Amino acid sequence: MFDRPRPRPTRRPGYRPQMRQKPTVFDARKERRVDERYDVSFETQIKSSMGQSIKGVIKDISESGCRVAITSWRKPEVDEVYSIKFGALEVQMGWTVWAQDESAGFKFAYPLSRYVVAHLAQLSQPQARPSPA
To answer: What are 74-95's pLDDT values in tens digits?
Structure first.
């Protein structure tokens, strides 16, 4: 008839609730990159879905993403979707995986072909010029 309060569960002696572990920003033991990265240097323009523009230089690239050194005052937000334009390629859609100081890492929505990445790396290398005789 009458609702009685339920008894509180008793804790066993020495019981300690488990604390949630803080997420780590980077753990070298759990490297998530699987594609080969190439050092490059391409000017890029990054646009947010709101139309805000960010300028930078792509410093390394792989089939699945790139690292950009940001040269404008505006910085990308982590987990935001951006369009990335560089070289003669069509605009690549991607999102920010990490952002730290003046750099940010982007993951492409659709991976680039390994042949395209290798070609971009070759284009970025300084051309060997014959020495004057």
So the answer is: 899 999 999 999 877 888 999 9
